[in-house]
Amino acid sequence: MHILEKAREIPVFYEADVCVLGGSCTGVFAAVRAARLGAKVVIVEKQNAFGGVAASGLVNVWHTIYDTVFQRQIIAGMTLETVERLRRRDAVDEEQRSHSVGYVLNTEELKIELDELINEAGVKPYLHTMFVAPHVEDGQLKAVIVENKSGRGAIAANYFIDATGDGDLCARLGLSHRLSSHFQPSTMCAKLSGWGANGDIQDSVTGTDKLTGIDLHQARLQYKDEFGIPEGFGWGRHVPGSSDTYMYAGTRVYHKNSADGEDLTFSEMEGRRQVRAIMDLVRKYGPDNKLALVSLPSYIGTRETRHMNCAYRLTGEDVLYGKRFDDAIANGSYRVDVHHQEKPGLTFKYLDGEQVYIRPGYPQEVSRWRGPLEQDPTFYQIPYRSLLPDGPFRNVIVAGRMLDADEEAFGGVRVMVNMNQTGEAAGVAAYLALSQSKSFGELDSGQIRSTLTQGGSLII
């Protein structure tokens, strides 16, 4: 059954040079970089705050800004600027020489800091605003249709940055994209009080403080059927500045695509059910732990949905062998980290050739994915071309996890410190395209790189 929606006139809410759809840190950094260069920028976010998975999803870690051997800084830009701003408010802790975590954030403070960045740069913000559809005239993307408490309206712009995470703008434009056959499962995080003892030595991989009288990994495995808890992987970190509030990421919602409305609804409710189940397990088998549920996310932590088909597909070989690109706009050192759909646990692949399969409750399986090299790579790169979607709309660029990367490459590049850089690159590219009246694909990548450097990014 279908309903015919009658044509109607709608107001233009705002006209800008650059429109950013999606207000994660990736989207905010794109908007701020373009605005700082002089563009008139608008940003549209469906949640009540900026910050994406870090804020609305509660994931309070950013990974290291150094290479794999912690000798060379490879990331700066707005990631480092934001860390420094949070540090002034005692809202960030640093974990040095850690392959698992570089910074632990108070993500509530992050929300406010991102508000200030938006306001200082003069970006026009729209919160609680849902992207509905693209508006195309004569084969050209001219505006996006949005809806909020004011009703339905349009935002017109010359250039558009799709930072929606799921590639919503590109998908609704009909641009070519794919869903990985083994897309990584989503995780519902939670903030809990009464967890462990803040300041104790944490596990170098999971960060999980010991609970009193219970080994949670073993208990989850032993009592999984009693509480309906799927096997997965649990980790977390304390909230900076708190005495006992812990962000725990220990749920798994398998085989559900967050870019599908029904799947997303199921995932949100199932994720919350699993949070309660884990707490019920601790209440029954570790009753000396006085856990209290402090907060749940307003959006489940989605690792992977759509990938746009772009001018270049980043491969696992590119990442694991540290391939250098002439048009590189981002650097990263986080290991390839694949959360499996087809089996419990996850696999880490390191740039030095080591491979580790971790299944909580079982011994780690350590092997090698390749033999030794004379010199191991210590970081990898993301090329600008992986942000340029195929198709006729040359005023659209992507930023964030919908970039073009295969399953293996995506396992490494998907983390926030890497995706933040793609946002900065998209924002700079939007300004350069505007100032030169060019499409995104016509830009000189060398000029993008040099402009990023002038704005504080580390371009190698």
TrEMBL record:
Q: What is this protein called?
A: FAD-dependent oxidoreductase
Q: What is the lineage of its organism?
A: Bacteria, Bacillati, Bacillota, Bacilli, Bacillales
**GO: which molecular function terms?**
4 iron, 4 sulfur cluster binding; metal ion binding; oxidoreductase activity
Alphabetized, the UniProt keywords read: 4Fe-4S, Iron, Iron-sulfur, Metal-binding, Oxidoreductase
Question: Is 4Fe-4S there in the keyword field?
Answer: yes
Coiled coil regions in record: none
Q: Which Pfam families match?
A: FAD_oxidored (PF12831)
* 4Fe-4S as UniProt keyword: yes
Q: Which organism is it from?
A: Paenibacillus thalictri
